[in-house]
Amino acid sequence: MPRLTIDNRSIDVPPGTTVLEAARRLGIDIPTLCHLDGLQPHTSCFMCVVEIEGQAGLKPSCAMPVAEGMVVRTQSDVVMRARRTALELLLSDHPGDCVAPCSLACPAHLKVADFVAAIVAGDNRRAAGIVRRRLPLPASLGRVCPRFCERACRRKELDEAVNIRDLHRWVADKDLASSDPHRPDGATESGKSVAVVGAGPAGLSAAYYLRQMGHACTLYEAQPQAGGLYRCGIDARRLPRDVLDAEIAAILGLGVQLRSGVRLGRDVSLDDLLARHNAVVLAIGTQTAMDQAAFYAEGRLAGGEVRYDFSLLNALGLQPSRRGVQADRATLATGRAGVFAAGNVVTGPNYGVHAVASGRRAAVAVDQFLRGADVVGDPAHVNVLMRDLSGDEVAVLRAHADPSPRGMPDSGNPAAAATASDTEVRAEAGRCLDCDCGKRDTCALRQLAARYGASPTRYHGPRRPFERDATHPDIVFESGKCIQCGRCVRIAEQDRETLGLTFIGRGFSVRTAAPFSSELSEALRRTARRCVEHCPTGALSLKRALRDSGG
Amino acid sequence: MTKAKRQPVDEPIDLAAVDNIVRRTGTTADAAIPILQAIQSHFRYLPQEALEHVCRTTEITAAQIAGVSTFYSQFRHKPVGRHMVRVCHGTACHVAGAPLITEALRRHLGIDDDHEDTDADRLFTIEKVPCLGCCSLAPCMTIDDVTYGKLTPHKATMIIDKVRKESGR
Amino acid sequence: MSDHNVKEIRVGLATCGIASGGRPVHEAVHEAARRHGLHVPVKAVGCSGLCHQEPIVEVVSTDGRRQVFGGVRPAEARRIVRDCVTPRGMVGKAMAWAGRMADLLLSDEAWVSVKPFAAHPESATEAGQAGEQKLIVLENCGQIDPLCIDEYLARGGYAALRRCVADMTPQQVIDAVTQSGLRGRGGGGYPTGLKWATARSQQDSTRYVVCNADEGDPGAFMDRLVLESDPQRVIEGMAIAAYAIGAAEGYIYIRAEYPLAVRVLREAIAQAERAGYLGQGILGTGFSLRLHVMEGAGAFVCGEETALMASIMGRRGMPRFRPPYPAESGLWGKPTSVNNVETFACVPWIVRHGSAAFAAIGTERSKGTKVFALAGRIRRGGLIEVPMGTTIRDVVENIGGGMHEGRRFKAVQIGGPSGGCIPASMADLPIDYEALTRTGAIMGSGGLVVLDDSDCMVDIARFFLEFTEKESCGKCTFCRVGTRRMLDILERLCDGKGHPEDLDDLEMLCDQVRHTSLCGLGRTAPNPVLTTLRYFRDEYEAHLQGRCPARKCKALIAYRVTDTCIGCTRCAQRCPVQAIQPTPYEQHTIDAEKCIRCGMCKAGCPADAIVVE
């Protein structure tokens, strides 16, 4: 049995074993895209490359047989750089959007297509759950949010944007009014406790998510009631107080303690809080500007210079920034251990949707801090973006779109929007083009790109057009996203599909497709779902209705 | 949402000729390239119907024949013009100005579309080839079986006109 | 019966000869010989390598002297024949029209003392230009009728095979080839003996021998010429290889773009079978060999041995990862030795003359000779064969005749898309595998294109990348996408739209593609870029600043009419986009907006009044 050394560890394996298999036996993880156990090695992606002492160049471990005395390195700088380059090259030729433009434009990254699909499916409770994973105050935001999402909506290329804000308001209103409103699953109690200072949108958001993570949570609010700017800065005609109260009640209902009338620096010190709790989230807004409520419009402080009470920050022992308190962009950690900041106190005056997004991000970081994990904030995602579409690409979207015009009146008139019927709402939801990639959360290419720090914009050339083939009843084929790994080709061949798939052309323009331009449903009669399952990218995905939209 | 159906074939294909080719060449997978070459030399391109017929009558699968026939640059899936013009783009011809020759010919024949290689009269098909192996005659081209060397853009277009005249067009 | 001392007349009818109008010349010679009662063989031979002088007629006298005429047209061909038959007066006659046709007469070492270019070493030796070329592979090219096996036999053909099967064990044959130091002539330079030994050592007794004649390098035509001119030599080499490794079946994979070579080869195989050098029980022994000709269908990557084998098996020509090497597991999983045309062509010579004779030629690690297709900006292009170790300068200046008037030797591009550009300053480099590799180029299969100061090195790099990008099989990421991204950068540079960071990016990408691609195509694709970046970086930097020093890149140049214009309007007539208004007898001007920089005006200007800036 040949003995080889991989990353300084020895192993004996039978002759004919590949380096990849040997590494796996040692528990060494080597990433792969084109390799699939049970299929002949294809050696196309070059993700699995390793360095072998005494041999020039890098070798694909999936096909490299072991040899006596071989010395293999799987993690060297050269290997890591090659893997990153391979990913960057693949991403440079990958027309598609990982995440729909609406979700990316939303500061809270609301998974729009997911909740909209739940509306279409008639599952309002699930829709509400999806919305609340990103928006803790969806009914309130549904009235005051400036709708960044709709500005980015690709449906605008065809006619008008989908009425996303009214849809989530409708979902939230309906849920709050139901006999059994959505309530998030809580984690087991962690035994840790967090002080959240300020019960505005940011503080409420932080508390809401921290509670779901199993941490005890106390909101300290200087005002008599929770709500922050949403209560004292926005006209009750735009944001009726019963809506706000209901949403706050739902958050407090998770077991969040509210201590109102307590002002930081006057009634309680940061040191006190740190002594009493395991972590503190400062969501004190632009506290000194509270009196200038008249300047608030659409939830954001409009115009005027904000005089921040920097003496307060000094007193708290925190580093000020130009806008407020200095905090890490990703984790919102301040200079003091265990103290995080969220909302306007970090960003300066901003919209409520920014505040709730910031509150959730702080909660994620605090949770990492409390669990003793690396405090890194939200996991980094790599997003391929198509940005502007060509005429042909708009035509592709049109070919797959429900042609109905806007089914709901614009929410410029809240009363009108409020009266939309279920049918109208569902019709409106049906207008969504579902721009998320069908493999948004499972794409191996995207996950590896994040892991290796690969940038999709490292190399740029003319973009290949986006294409979509939805003729198959179950699956969608977006050929531009294909990385020519040949898994589907080999699967179809192995299962003796009459037509199957093949590589068409060669070089950079090589494409995976059905022979003779046959329809996908003819080409993959038996193996369509298996091909989707093993496709490492969003080139082959299940149709929305068949996908488990876990969000 | 259906894609455009397969393009209708203008003329019915003589499948008996395909049968003959298969009989002559063999029915195993390794006969794929010789079969395709024979079909192309018979029809001057690869009609899809002929390829489908090959799949029905041999061990060659649709995936194989589609993959192979699009891999090699010799194979054409569209009918060609009456005359094949092959402009050599080998190294020697490149430095001697082959790009200008191809451009001049395309312009002269009014072929504007980058994806098109045949003129509107379907008289000439222009092909860039890697090397004709006549480096000492650079830049050179062949029209059908005749080689023309030491070209200039002007000379190349004059040759085209001469061939056109001889074709009676 | 006329009085003459002519043994035979040869007309070069390889592709280059035909392309230059050799057929009518051949007919004219035939017809004239008949008319003058000159009953000597008029042979259609291949090419002797003097491609730049085709059509070539060669008159061989009974005493073995040879007279080579270049650039012959039918009328001249008739005169050549007529002069042959004039008794005794021949010398005077020849002298007389040697004066008239000094440029026509190439080599006539005995009869007339003009010697414009003695490219053929045999004649060269007599003419006192020894030491430049050494013919092993090309020894019969242009001398024999390729479709006549007897002529090959008359020149010692198949003696080597006979000796192998009669007197040598396969192992002895392998040893002989190993000792000769012969290395693969297809580019890689892998020791041929070692490859054969590996194939022979495999358990499986079904083995194949494959001849790689898929010569796809733009600017290379060695294989075509050898196969068109002396096909039996390659067949004999294959038969020896088959005997050595124990193969009973072989394939010759040849480009379909070489129809003449294919035809010649098929006929040559049939003749060899009839003569008992192929087929069952060769030369009365138990050794049998069947050869098949497989025409490639246009894919440069099929020069890579695993891709070539995939193609023979009827698949897409996509390389696969090695190991296993073809010598271990090749065609249909059987041990297969894949060797190049030139490699096989060396083998009979080695057996006939002995390993030591071969090893005596060349350098320490590169033995024997190398055939090059010499082309580009030199006076005399064609096929040459030089001993390994000959310097680039010898090839360019002595054999190729140097640059054209007023031009400066800038670089040689050697090895095609896998090779690189070696600057004139390094012209004293000896041609040998290791020395070339050290420069960043490779020996390659033998394309040697000479470049002068009118050639843009960035454009050359772009040209080769465009080629490899198109010829990439599209399998592995680095080659499929990497070469495309490299080309993107080079195109930007040639368009004057480069970014300052492009050169570093290009270098980085080259490095990654070189180290991580699946096969030789990808691994060598960066060579043209890296060598030009290394030796001509100033030209890249000039492009970044929007200048093309060689005035080649269209986006960076402009055409202008100078005051030497005579107002003949020819440029205006030729301009395809009406960028020049005809103004008779006045200086013309070019509308820069309309001008597409096609160069038609400049090419047609009788007063040389159009300049590129």
Give the helices and strands, then pairings:
The complex is a heterotrimer of chains A (551), B (169) and C (613).
Chain A: E1 3-6, E2 9-12, H1 19-25, E3 49-52, E4 58-60, E5 71-73, H2 77-91, H3 101-105, H4 112-120, H5 124-132, H6 138-144, H7 148-152, H8 164-177, E6 193-197, H9 201-212, E7 216-221, H10 229-232, H11 241-252, E8 257-260, H12 270-276, E9 279-282, E10 296-297, E11 300-301, H13 310-316, E12 339-341, H14 344-347, H15 352-370, H16 391-399, H17 414-418, H18 422-430, H19 444-451, E13 475-477, H20 487-494, E14 502-504, E15 511-513, H21 520-523, H22 528-534, E16 540-542
Parallel strand pairs in A: 1-5, 6-7, 6-9, 7-8, 9-12
Antiparallel strand pairs in A: 1-2, 3-4, 3-5, 10-11, 13-16, 14-15
Chain B: H1 15-25, H2 32-43, H3 48-57, H4 62-71, E1 83-88, H5 91-95, H6 98-108, E2 124-129, E3 141-143, E4 146-148, H7 153-166
Parallel strand pairs in B: 1-2
Antiparallel strand pairs in B: 1-3, 3-4
Helix pairs in contact in B: 1-2, 1-3, 6-7
Chain C: E1 6-12, H1 15-19, H2 22-35, E2 42-45, E3 57-61, E4 66-69, H3 74-85, H4 90-100, E5 105-107, H5 121-126, H6 149-154, H7 159-167, H8 170-180, H9 192-200, E6 208-213, H10 222-229, H11 231-245, E7 249-254, H12 259-274, E8 290-295, H13 305-312, E9 336-340, H14 341-353, H15 355-359, E10 369-376, E11 382-387, H16 392-399, E12 409-414, E13 420-423, H17 433-439, E14 447-452, H18 457-471, H19 477-494, H20 502-516, H21 520-524, H22 527-535, H23 537-544, E15 559-561, H24 570-574, H25 600-604, E16 610-612
Parallel strand pairs in C: 1-2, 6-7, 6-9, 7-8, 10-14
Antiparallel strand pairs in C: 1-3, 3-4, 4-5, 10-11, 12-13, 12-14, 15-16
Helix pairs in contact in C: 2-3, 7-11, 7-14, 8-9, 8-11, 10-12, 11-14, 18-19, 18-22, 19-20, 20-22, 22-23
